[in-house]
Fold each of these.
Amino acid sequence: MVVSALAMKVPDMKALRAIKFLLQFQMVGVMLLAVPGSSAEDQVRAGPEQIVSEVHDALTRAMREGPTLGYKGRFELLAPVVDKTHELDFIARTALGANWAQLDAGQQRTFTDVFRKLSIGSYAGWFKSHEGEHFEILEQQSLPRNQVMVRSRLVRPRGEPVRFDYVLRQAPDGWRIVNVLADGVSDLALKRVEYRAILQRDGFPALIDMLREKIALTENG
């Protein structure tokens, strides 16, 4: 009877292993919660391909709803996505290079604000109608200075696909786009050459006027 009573109270080996596994699992959960700075948001932070996919989804929606939304609607649709996925302040500073330090604080704010409007406006102006296009992500490549490139293309029903390669780097709040190459041509490199030439030749007011003219063209194009 004593043996029978003990047998009823003592679990078999399978049960012991299951209990041990559950205890270990619970301990791991406690340790994760106790890690300084660890949060659910950090654990699900988007990777480079997810960032690019978010941009593609927004651009596809802008194309599909383009005629209904109009330029203003597309701009409002894309603005929060571009702000979230692109490191616009960094791109603006990089476009001006050493000239950035020569601007006063007010000029820097003005340039960054106008540059942001042009960046979003360019997307809103280019991606305004849909004829069956879709984006495909091809691969992710490592680059120097802890950057990565996500290679993709826009497949069109008629004509050759358009390559879009995105360069991303780790910002304080996650991966962010810092350059876009369309069919191998660097958008940032083009901006560097154009902006610096105008700034050095004609001055800051002329550069801002040129950017605002480009914004108007994206809206009316």
Amino acid sequence: MACQTATDPNSLEWCEGQVNLPGIRPKVYFTPKSTIVKWPTRPTVLATGETMGKLATYTGNFELAADKVWQSMDIIEDRSPATADVQGTKPSKTYLNQAVLVVPNVDAEAAGLSQLAANSDYVYLVQDKPGKFRVLGNEMYQTNTDVAMALGGSATDEMGTTITASVTDSCHMPFYEGEIETADGIINPSTPETP
């Protein structure tokens, strides 16, 4: 049997003067993995003419159990970095995807989420500044969620809840272009935003 490689790589180009906006947007979506009844898929082999970006992009929609929707949290975006680091050795390298999500809330709802997420497996959707959604969570590995809280001491101390979500994946923070069903309606990331 002949081996099938994903594809030959294509060029990574950068246009002089192009703006590269760091960070993520101030709303993050999340759901327990147990509510997901069907996952979108990512290809392992590309069809002729497809670029390597398809390897890192989910096709299709997340389908949640009946009466379940993606919940949201408002974060302090300037203090909430998202990263992906390589781990392991060939031929078993993977990525550790992580987002540190700083939430201003220190109320009972934030404490409740901490209690639920700490020993559960959650999936998070973060949106980068250009508008693309990225996924933290997958079918293969459990997502670890650590939650810390600070009430502060003096009048100038910081106060808030810090949610650190991390998960191993075969891709660094894959893209998601499918629908996101929320309590306020469906978000369709594949539809361009209008100013």
Amino acid sequence: MAAKPTALVVVAHHRADSLTAHIGGVAAARLEKAGYAVDLLDLRAEGFDPRMTVADQPDWNDRDKVYSPEVQSHMDRILAAELIVPVFPVYWNSAPALLKGWIDRVWNYGFAYGRSKPRLAGKRMLWLGLAGAVQDDDFAPWMKETLDRVLREGVSFYNGITEASLEVLYDVEGEPQYVDAEGNFTKGEALTGQARLSHYEALDRQAAEYVAKLVSA
């Protein structure tokens, strides 16, 4: 019997009870349903340190540098995966330090980039961000475009992964947030009761749909 293809789900949040962790579980369940063996990489739970180290600093004169055992193990997990799904909260229109440091240390020179034939070519990715902003806020398209350029183009495409997408789940706090043309911030009343339950059920469905789209691509 042929082995199942592997999907790597990377959860980047500092709390185990976060919505990010929950959505990571939703993504993992959808991938398992599609026939994938899921490697769930919870960066917080595994104690990953996002700060660069001397051992993992790129050596521009040696693309075959041997990195630290921790980073090498993460590289191996990326290589083993056909699909990669980082799930993360959106902080300041970017990825949180935990995910950014994982990219800095693990997606390193000689491994992810720096070769005429990219080692990661042929893999597929879905970057799945969770934002407090509402989707109809004028600011939301700019935020998504910024994330798309930095993560899908700047990381995935730069490292040879041409089949990648960036999606955002909006209003994840259940408290509508808006910024007007003058930069004034407004936060609406929190959802309660059945309205709150329905809101988060809809986020689960949306996350699962994004993953299903990745699988079917």
